[in-house]
Design goal:
The structure holds two protein chains of two kinds.
Chain A: H1 12-23, H2 27-49, H3 52-69, H4 80-101, H5 123-141, H6 145-155, H7 161-168, H8 172-194
Helix pairs in contact in A: 1-2, 2-3, 2-4, 3-4, 5-8, 6-8, 7-8
Chain B: H1 6-17, H2 23-35, H3 37-52, H4 65-73, H5 83-89, H6 91-98, H7 105-120, H8 124-129, E1 138-144, E2 153-159, E3 164-170, E4 179-186, E5 194-198, E6 203-206, E7 216-223, E8 234-238
Antiparallel strand pairs in B: 1-2, 1-8, 2-3, 3-6, 4-5, 4-7, 7-8
Classes of the chains: A mainly alpha, B alpha+beta.
Chain lengths: ~200, ~240
């Protein structure tokens, strides 16, 4: 099976090499990687945690982990971006579930914060980020409302199948089917966009 | 990809990408991915798709000072790199030469205990399915590589079907401050030893599938919390197949 697409677009060609350099203790490579990934990662952290302080803590944690664990990254298992995103999501979900356990979780969704003007990324990188964001939103826009809703609850809120079924008051099988079809459609659309 | 249930594996890979699989289904998918490169590629493909969902979040740059704050926390630039792996693998021939320590009566009793502990971690269904597989349990005594640890014993009972085991530590002195003992699975098919985690007491452990039913094991002394690959001295080891 051929690889469907390069996840981080044009910049993705160098991401894996940067991680290898980071594994050798190259701080300049680490800074480049930070500049490239920090905005989408921080945006994801804000969206998931709905708390700027926690999102900043999480971003620190993840980048320190990238520095310490870069040696364990294997390019054949996936792109550098998906490797780092997975680390952030796993840690964010741990925090969300921990909050839930303490009964402190607020029901509010992530605030719709305006893009900040203090961005440290270059205009070319911002342009690239914008392009990818448009592609992803376009792909999501082609899913049904129900499919989109299930994927968002799973991806951003870290809910399990049962929790989503409870929240939406739908059978578990319906939730699974929506998630499967939504992901399959996303994969197809994004593949077409990158061919 | 397996011709039996390609659409099921596709469905599982899609759900796995957004963490919607339960433990058993996840294991089924990962086992299939281990056997079949096409399934592995499918899992990777869906994971890439899922990672792009991050771009749906409204773009917000982190505060300008955060980068510097992170950089200040990076440890000193010197890193050991691959030389540690070479140092680690140099132990293997010694472990092979030493062979498996003969098991005495007291150790047999301890191993019976390990077997029971390993079996008790299974569900009833697992027990039924694996009732014929218990004979395949690998029981290994790790040989002390340092005279200072001659009085210590480390035994491992390994279930090759579930890729998990139980480690028993006996008379092992407490790790020095700032250090931990870390257990490694030595898989001849892997590029590097596979971490089975920090061990402070007898406990069970699990790792991703390994390429042999008889992997080796080792215990090294690592900085507190453990490391993804061995960096410290190897204190105990038994080679694969012994």
């Amino acid at each position: 099976m051929e690889k469907a697409f390069q996840s981080t677009g044009k910049a993705g060609d160098d991401d894996e090499r940067l991680i290898l350099k980071v594994a050798q203790g190259d701080r300049a490579a680490f800074i480049t990687l930070y500049d490239r990934f920090s905005t989408p990662l921080y945006s994801l952290a804000i969206k998931m945690l709905a708390n700027e302080t926690e999102a900043q803590d999480l971003l620190q944690e993840v980048f320190l982990s990238v520095w310490n664990k870069a040696e364990t990254y294997r390019a054949q298992r996936g792109s550098a971006f998906s490797w780092v995103v997975a680390q952030l999501r796993n840690r964010a979900i741990d925090r969300i579930r921990s909050r839930r356990r303490r009964g402190e979780l607020l029901e509010a969704n992530a605030p719709e914060l305006e893009p900040t003007s203090s961005a440290t990324t270059s205009s070319a990188e911002n342009c690239d980020l914008g392009e990818r964001a448009r592609e992803v939103r376009s792909a999501l826009g082609q899913l049904s409302d129900e499919q989109r809703q299930v994927l968002r609850l799973a991806y951003f809120d870290g809910l399990t199948q049962s929790e989503i079924a409870d929240r939406l008051e739908e059978p578990l099988g319906t939730i699974k089917a929506r998630a499967q079809r939504g992901m399959a459609r996303m994969r197809t659309i994004l593949k077409v966009l990158h061919e | 990809m397996s011709s039996e249930t390609p659409s099921r594996l596709d469905d599982l890979a899609a759900l796995h990408a957004v963490d919607l699989l339960d433990h058993e289904a996840r294991q089924e998918l990962l086992d299939a991915a281990q056997r079949d490169p096409a399934v592995e590629a499918l899992v990777r493909d869906y994971a890439e798709t899922a990672s792009l969902l991050a771009y749906e979040a409204p773009p917000i740059a982190p505060p300008p000072g955060l980068r510097q704050k992170i950089l200040r926390q990076l440890p000193a630039p010197a890193r050991a790199g691959k030389s540690n792996i070479i140092a680690f693998t140099q132990w293997v021939p010694y472990a092979i030469a030493a062979g498996l320590m003969a098991l005495g009566i007291s150790q047999s009793l301890q191993i019976d205990g390990l077997k029971s502990q390993l079996i008790s971690t299974r569900t009833e269904a697992d027990r039924l399915r694996d009732s014929n597989a218990l004979a395949g349990l690998r029981l290994a005594t790790l040989e002390a590589k340092d005279a200072a640890y001659a009085a210590s014993k480390i035994l491992v009972a390994w279930d090759p079907y579930r890729h998990r085991g139980v480690v028993s530590l006996q008379n092992l002195p407490a790790a020095p401050t700032g250090k931990d003992y870390q257990l490694w699975v030595l898989d001849p098919g892997a590029e590097a030893p596979v971490s089975a985690g920090v061990v402070t007491d007898s406990r069970s452990f699990a790792v991703k599938p390994v390429s042999t039913p008889q992997p080796g094991f080792a215990v090294s002394l690592e900085p507190a919390g453990g490391r993804p690959e061995p960096t410290g001295p190897i204190l105990f080891a038994v080679a694969p197949g012994l």
